[in-house]
Amino acid sequence: MKCLPVLCSVLFLPALLFAQDIKKKTAPQLGKNSIKEVIAAMTLEEKAKLVVGNGFHMPGVNPPGGPVIGQTQDKVPGAAGTTYAIPRLGIPSLVVSDGPAGVRIDPFRNGDSSRSYYATAWPVGTLLASSWDTALVKKVGAAFGSEVKEYGIDILLAPALNIHRNPLGGRNFEYYSEDPLVAGNITAAIVNGVESNGVGTSIKHYAANNQETNRNTVNTILSERALREIYLKGFEIAVKKSQPWTVMSSYNKINGTYTSQEYDLLTTILRKEWGFKGFVMTDWFGGKDPVAQIKAGNNLLMPGTTQQTQKIIDAVNNNSLSMQVLDENVAGILNIILQSPSFKGYKFSDKPDLKKDAAVSRTAATEGMVLLKNENNALPLKAVKKVAVFGNTSYDIIAGGTGSGDVNKAYTVSLLQGLLAAGYTADAGLEKIYQDYLKTEKEKHPKKSFFQEFMNPTPPIAEYAADNSIITQKADENDIALITIGRNAGEGRDRKVDNDFNLSDTEKALIKNVAEAFHAKNKKVVVVLNIGGVIEVANWRDYADAILLAWQPGLEAGNAITDILSGKVNPSGKLATTFPVEYNDVPSAKNFPGKEFPDQAETGNFGMKQIPAEVTYEEGIYVGYRYYNTFNVKPAYEFGYGLSYTNFTYKDLKLSSSSFKNKITATVTVTNSGAVAGKEVVQLYISAPSQKLDKPSEELKGFAKTNLLQPGASQTITFNINAADLASFDTNSTSWIAEAGKYSVKIGASSTSIKQTAIFGLANDIVVEKDNKVLTPQVDINEFKPANNNATGYIQELNGFVTMGQ
Ligand code: BGC
Q1: Please, where are the H alpha helices in 86-133?
Q2: Which residues are within 8 A (CB) of 800 and not within 5 positions of it... i.e. 6 or more apart?
Q3: Neighbours of 556 (CB within 10 A)
Q4: How far apart are CA 84 and CA 66, in angstroms?
Q5: Ligand 1 centre from 335 Cα, in Å?
Q6: What is the model's pLDDT at position 452?
């Protein structure tokens, strides 16, 4: 049939529209049709857009001025990013938002200050881990997840579980521990709590991302054993115990390849060895080559740029990326979208129960504070009415760190406010001096935008140099002195040794002068550490009667600290990270933050200079207490250490057998032998025989926190020890091997305070698991090796196993 074009279109228009309509209606829909059918209906462009985030939608921000740390105005203002929606296939956009210490979104929208979107600032990760209480952490996760859900977010960009390799790590406050067993189990608890709300998490930063200096370029060079035993172990535990919706790959390279471009990290290990079912997203602008990322199994590139989308389209068109691989990555994302609140059309309220959550935050904060010193029972405060409160951060407390780990909270309770609320009287004169000083100092640095602050952080306010005559006067007028020492750090930079790890001269003088003046009057001095990472304590601790490590305790900071100081709550936190005597004692001190190659510098995103760099983990597996214990370097406060207002005794350690078959059970009874109710963190360490492989002298293999035990009450704790708990990674055979020999089970109140020991034997080596030979370093690493390892020799020595009490 022939017709004139105009007439033709008129004649056939209805039919055309009908056909389109049918096509639209019959296009497969996510949730109704199989993922395979949905993918088959997607165009190449749609697929390439789905695996690349929507970028930043920042009205009024002209690139290259956009923020480095994710923040978009799309869907949920201030969230870190969104994914591409394909409405014709029923695929919604996902909202992802930071971060580890609370939901990070804009507190106000469109200049409307009548309605706020504040979130709870939870205690920082290091504090939560110091609780050693997975049930508590899961509760925090559940409350945290309700805010994620009620603010319309699908995936929380947390928790963060990189190992505390070095105390100067700028983001250590976001992370949990120097030990992967603690980090992995705390992560699994948070993930299970958050995800119980039907929202997702992204465990990050996978992996070996232990510094901020040159974070986008640094090549982390480490042995397969250190990688497997220390830096991957926590992720492995978390994946196996909580199956998080997503994993975030890190910025750094591992042994030469960007993690987001490393198939063996993202697919061979994460998916094939550990069985991870979710999807992997990059860290914001992480890696270089989008096609390599997709091939590696890094499903989603965040926050996403149009160039990345184009490169993926081009690669499929020129056959350098197969459609099948792209489809697999798409499927990974769609699988998670199916579970998301956005897909389910959840009508979020924008009104989480912040009051209820603040109470959870306060309780959690008290559970993770660590009492480091308590000479002559200086704490809890007794017969104290009037308190001389020293230290900037007593008045201007630090709830949490900076960068994407920061939270827009409605308030932060200062220590002063906490004390007043509990009925103490604070020295008003001293308060005025500090408040005036802080006001003047703050006025010198007007508040900057998040981005400006990230690029050029405002220096911390120098500690107020209190005059000696004032200190002496205050010692007359008050019952006790409290001194708070504060530290803050965050994403983008590492900390320094001088005036950061080490106290400044003003801080040292303050502690000394206050101690001398108050002690002269027979009055006590309590130091509160409001810090996110480890500092030097050995030099000044003798001046203090008590030291409370309060960490950065979230928005209820002052109330939670006062709960401990007053004795309303008995401290039960223990260190999940060592406090060394001095910085040079840290095993990675000589290899942190590594070498730079400035002559090869390039310009990266937002015009930022990118300097190639490398860092070699020469300490190998000897990180934290694994080093201090094995190499006999005495720390200031060891891993696992923490005091209580009561005492605990340990007795009756029993093993289910004296020779290991598939499993051994250890039971031990802990009794509160003091005068007040309290909880104890019970730790199980193993000293393994060293045949072919060198071994740390102790390794944590189990931990538990008792219930609140009343004076005289006991609890029996049971630990299960499996073959995997006895195994070390043998690089030659790429397998986990439990070596034959004599094993000591050590039940400790800390990593050096061992209370009960028992011994069992293993007759023959067990190959627990054979893994793939991957991520091999390309250079020799001069790794630490202990001179005299605890080679406990042969099975013949195993006569007469004993259970020893101490
Ligand atoms: C941080 C991530 C964060 C992301 C989105 C990055 O700069 O490293 O931890 O989740 O930004 O804000």
Answers
A1: 125-130
A2: none
A3: 30
A4: 19
A5: 23
A6: 79
Tokens of 152: 């319309």
Atom of ligand 1 lying closest to residue 251 CA: 8
583 CA from centroid of ligand 1 (Å): 28
pTM score: 0.94
Contact 716, 667 (CB under 8 A): yes
**Relative to the CA of 104, which ligand 1 atom is closest?**
12
Strands 279-281 and 253-254: unpaired
Residues carrying an active site annotation = 283
Mutate to test the pocket of ligand 1, among 54, 76, 98 (most ligand atoms within 8 A of CB): 98
Q: How far is the CA of 279 from the centre of ligand 1 (A)?
A: 17
Is omega for the bond preceding 303 within 30 degrees of 0, making it cis? yes
Block mean pLDDT (10 aa), the chain, length 806 = 45 49 74 98 98 79 48 88 97 97 94 95 98 98 98 98 98 98 99 99 98 97 98 99 98 98 98 98 97 98 96 98 98 98 98 98 98 98 96 98 94 98 98 98 87 83 97 98 97 97 98 98 98 98 98 98 98 98 98 96 82 98 98 98 98 98 97 98 98 97 98 98 98 98 98 98 98 98 86 36 33
Q: What type of residue sits at position 526?
A: V
Residues 124, 130, 131, 136: is their CA dihedral positive or negative? positive
Residue of 159, 210, 155 lying closest to 183 (CA atoms): 159
Peptide bond into 589 cis (omega under 30): no
- The partner residues of 292 in beta bridges, in order of sequence, read none
Q: Which of 640, 651, 629 is nearest to 804 (CA)?
A: 651
Q: Is the CB of 97 under 6 A from ligand 1?
A: no
Phi, psi of 714 (to 5 degrees): -125, 160
- Decide: 283 in ligand 1 pocket, CB within 6 A: yes
User: Which pLDDT score is estimated for 12?
Assistant: 52
Positive or negative: CA dihedral 7, 12, 13, 14: positive
Test site for ligand 1: of 281, 284, 285, 606, most ligand atoms within 8 A of the Cβ:
284
Distance in Å, CA 607 to ligand 1 centroid: 18
Give residues with Cβ within 8 angstroms of 9, minimum separation 6.
Answer: none
Tokens for 642, please give them. Answer: 């923490």
| Phi–psi pair at 177, nearest 5 degrees | -160, 165
pLDDT score, position 70: 66
The CA distance from 574 to 564, in Å, is 14
CB under 8 Å to 758, separation ≥6 — which residues?
653, 654, 655, 666, 744, 745, 801, 802, 803, 804
| CA–CA distance, 232 with 240 (Å, rounded to integer) | 12
Which residues of 242-282 form beta strands (DSSP E)?
A: 246-249, 253-254, 257-258, 279-281
End-to-end CA distance of the chain: 101
CA distance 379 to 566: 8
- Closest ligand 1 atom to residue 157 Cα is 10
Residues 6+ apart with CB under 8 A from 197: 142, 145, 146, 148, 149
Is beta strand 766-770 parallel, antiparallel or unpaired with respect to 735-738? antiparallel
The secondary element (H helix, E strand) that includes residue 264 is: none
- The residues near 75 (Cβ < 8 Å, ≥ 6 apart) are 82, 93, 95, 152
Judged by DSSP in three states, 387 sits in: strand
- Ligand 1 in contact with 284 (CB < 6 A)? yes
For 278, the 3-state DSSP assignment is coil
Distance of CA 113 from the midpoint of ligand 1 (Å): 27
559 within 8 A of 421, measured Cβ to Cβ: yes
Tokens of 763: 């007759």
Three-state secondary-structure class, residue 640: coil
Name the residue among 61, 72, 71, 27 with its Cα closest to residue 46: 27
Distance (Å, whole) CA 293 – CA 287:
8
